[in-house]
Design goal:
The complex is a heterodimer of chains A (265) and B (425). Chain A has helices at 15-21, 26-29, 62-73, 82-87, 99-107, 139-150, 162-169, 174-178, 194-197, 216-225, 230-241, 247-255, and strands at residues 3-9, 33-38, 50-56, 59-61, 75-81, 116-120, 130-132. Chain A is of the alpha/beta class and 265 residues long. Chain A folds into two domains: 3-150, Rossmann fold, CATH 3.40.50.700; 162-256, no CATH class. Chain B is an alpha+beta fold and 425 residues long. Chain B has helices at residues 42-45, 51-57, 68-80, 87-118, 123-129, 131-152, 172-196, 240-243, 268-275, 281-289, 301-323, 371-392, 398-411, 416-419, and strands at residues 5-9, 19-25, 29-35, 161-162, 165-166, 210-216, 223-229, 234-236, 244-247, 256-259, 264-265, 339-347, 350-359, 362-369. In chain B, strands 6, 7, 8, 11, 12, 13 and 14 form a seven-stranded mixed sheet that branches. In chain B, strands 1-2-3 form a three-stranded antiparallel sheet, with helices on one face. In chain B, strands 4-5 form a two-stranded antiparallel sheet. The mean pLDDT of chain B is 94. The chains are: A alpha/beta (265), B alpha+beta (425). Chains A and B meet through helix 1, strand 4, helix 5, strand 6 and helix 9 of A and helix 1, helix 2, helix 4, helix 5 and helix 6 of B.
């Protein structure tokens, strides 16, 4: 029997779905699954029972939450796909701010028919079985996850950083050679260190490492020694890491001995 | 108004992002495009960031047009900091942008639009009966993706395009590969035009409309700084707020654009209407051969126009890849740390505007207006006319009318994630 799958998008750039829709062997792959639901690609279907549901996007409206819960109820396995679903995405950077204030600053004083929110990862609302990281995930990762489920197996999440892929490829270290704030040491691997390979510092788009081993503090210390201020460090680390537990705390700790400096912010 | 019948689809399939349509039929017909995709406040999250980081955040507005959402802020930042990039950078950025045009148009036409024309719920089921047609679509999409991967570093969210140039330059061999790949897909590109040149457009949506597009710096290009309208008016990008007004409605997280207080259109059709004389090569011949399909008053002509552009941009990429001699050069770094900059480019779906204010390397203000935000009111008017026309003509099957309404919406290739990035008034 073919595996039944559903693909869903909450609030996001739709890049993870686009990544899934643009795997080179798409037409071959779709023969092996029954796609019960994929609104971006198909006008058939409603949310009903599937073996595996893939969800991209953050929860950014009350409707997102409702839809997500319905997806969870109907899925044996739920996979959070990409930085928005796993960490809240770049929009999650506003975490901790008042939604209403931000809304009014941007839209002016308007009543809306829908309830918006600051973007949050889906694990804050439902149980998540697997995480498929990336912004967006790599093609081979998408294929690997699909293949694992098709074979009745389960995918293993990477627990090592972009930095190790970079070392393996022998790229010059962006932090050491160029003195730039590269987030490779705390970002989950899988991209084969694409950006350092292009001479560009990693901004952490794949999100912090899982299993609580993203050491924002030790990297912040390195950046501090290179002469970067707390604000410099925080502004870069929060782009994809804002909702990582204790990120702020870890950065604070490194810079706490120079209370005077924070006045410059 | 007493509503007799209602067409309601809260979640339109086969578009990018989450939007719906509500049509109410009574003494008159009303249509609303509801946008329920959550707000993401890009103008807020780029604020107080280093310009390099802000530019890296922008592509996340939308994956289908992540290249325009990188190259346009780069242009705005470079204008603000008075960086003059090299001729080679300009060429390669053009090629990268054109690659996105091909991929985005191919995805839209084959994955989203053509299933409507052939009566399938999706491209997957369509592929079973029309394998060759679908193969064309995938080849074109893969070609566009290849160009983006080589030049942008990857096809979605191009981290290799940076302020002042590129992180890593492509090799001469890369150019050779791109040229060969372009030659291979040229026929598939032409076949796309042939496909659309077989369908007549529903006359219900014949509405005179204003088209806006840029006056390209060169040829039928995507960069420029002057915006021209089909009513003969034109304006410089720095005056965009005066000429393109935005409004908020309670049923949409996307703001909506008006030009001279009226809905207007941007995108492939608008570009062809205003700039087709600037085209050359096979695309130009095809436009001349199929001129009757280039109808400024009918939005269905947008699909045909996208097909023409696939041919044009594929041929252009081929030409550029053949002629360019890659030379090693460094990124141009700014001497200035403050300034204001405006940029406008032609994204696949139409005009994309960025404004940025940088102080001491930090972005203090950023504003973005996306094509979908501009054309939603026009799309809404077309949806209304479609339903009204069919209803008055005696089509009382709500499902059928609903399908046609969706089809006219899809012809615009709306990009909802883009439209809900949110703009400061």
């Amino acid at each position: 029997m073919k595996l039944k799958i559903g693909v869903h998008g909450l609030t996001s750039c739709y890049g993870c779905q686009l990544r899934m829709a643009s795997i080179k062997e798409l037409l071959e792959a779709v023969k092996r699954f029954d796609i019960e639901y994929w609104y971006m690609a198909s006008s058939k279907g409603e949310i009903k029972h599937v073996d595996v549901a893939f969800v991209e996007g953050s929860v950014s409206t009350a409707e997102d939450e409702k839809e997500l819960k319905k997806i969870r109820e109907n899925a044996d396995i739920l996979v959070a796909v990409g930085s928005c679903a796993i960490h809240g995405g770049v929009q999650g950077m506003l975490f901790g701010e008042e939604y209403k204030e931000i809304f009014e600053e941007i839209y002016g004083k308007h009543e809306m028919d829908f309830e918006g929110r600051i973007g949050e990862p889906i694990k804050n609302y439902v149980d998540v079985d697997y995480f498929l990281p990336g912004c967006p995930p790599e093609e081979e990762e998408v294929v690997y996850y699909l293949a694992c489920f098709a074979l009745g197996s389960y995918p293993e999440e990477k627990d090592y950083p972009v930095c190790s892929e970079c070392r393996r490829n022998g790229y010059p270290c962006i932090i050491i050679e160029k003195g730039e704030m590269c987030l490779g040491p705390l970002t989950v691997a899988g991209c084969n260190a694409r950006c350092p390979g292009h001479n560009v510092a990693c901004i952490g788009c794949r999100g912090p490492l899982p299993y609580n081993i993203a050491w924002f503090d030790s990297l912040a210390k390195t950046f501090k020694e290179k002469g970067f201020s707390k604000e410099d460090v925080r502004k870069r680390m929060e782009i994809f890491g804002k909702q990582y537990k204790k990120m702020d705390e870890m950065i604070e700790k490194v810079f706490e001995d120079e209370g005077g400096k924070t006045d410059q912010e | 108004m007493k509503v007799e019948r209602q067409i309601r689809n809260d979640h339109l399939a086969r578009i990018e992002g989450k939007a719906g349509v509500v049509v109410e039929i009574g003494d008159e017909v009303r249509a609303k495009i509801t946008v329920t995709e959550g707000p993401r406040f890009f103008e807020m999250i780029t604020r107080n960031k280093h310009y390099e980081d802000a530019a890296a955040i922008c592509p996340r507005i939308c994956s289908f047009c992540s290249i325009p959402h990188k190259l346009t802020p780069l242009e705005a930042i470079e204008k603000a900091l008075e960086i003059e990039v090299t001729e080679q950078t300009k060429q390669l950025r053009n090629m990268l942008y054109f690659g996105n045009m091909v991929e985005s148009h191919a995805l839209h036409l084959y994955l989203f639009a053509i299933p409507d024309y052939l009566g399938f719920p999706d491209a997957f089921s369509m592929a079973k009966e029309y394998p060759d047609l679908m193969k064309n679509g995938m080849e074109l999409k893969n070609f566009g993706a290849m160009v983006q991967s080589i030049l942008g570093g990857r096809e979605i969210h191009p981290e290799n395009a940076v302020v002042g140039g590129f992180g890593k330059l492509p090799s001469q061999q890369d150019m050779e590969n791109i040229k060969k790949a372009a030659e291979k897909v040229k026929e598939a590109a032409i076949a796309t035009v042939d496909f659309f040149a077989e369908y007549e457009y529903p006359s219900y949506v014949n509405i005179p409309r204003n088209h806006l597009a840029i006056k390209p710096y060169e040829g039928y290009g995507v960069y420029g700084e002057e915006i021209v309208a089909s009513d003969g008016f034109s304006f410089h990008i720095s005056g965009y707020k005066e000429h393109i007004k935005e409004e908020v409605v309670p049923y949409s997280f996307a703001k909506r654009g008006k030009y001279k207080d009226s809905p207007f259109m941007v995108g492939a059709l608008s570009r062809l209407v205003l700039n087709k004389e600037l085209m050359n090569g096979t695309a130009k011949e095809l436009v001349n051969n199929y001129e009757r399909f280039l109808r400024p008053e009918n939005s269905f002509a947008n699909n045909f126009s996208q097909a023409i552009e696939i041919v044009y941009f594929t041929e252009k990429i081929m030409e550029m890849a053949e002629n360019i001699k890659i030379k090693e050069e460094k990124r141009v770094m700014p001497e200035k740390h403050d300034g204001k900059g405006y940029a406008v480019t032609e994204a696949p779906r139409g005009l994309l505007i960025y404004e940025v204010d940088i102080q001491n390397d930090i972005v203090k203000y950023m504003n973005v207006i996306t094509p979908t935000a501009m054309f939603i009111p026009m799309m809404e008017l077309d949806a209304k006319k479609m339903a009204e026309g069919m209803w008055n003509d005696g089509y009382k099957d709500i499902d059928l009318v609903g399908k046609k309404v969706e089809m006219v919406i899809r012809a615009y290739d709306p990009c909802i994630s883009c439209s809900v990035h949110v703009i400061k008034l």
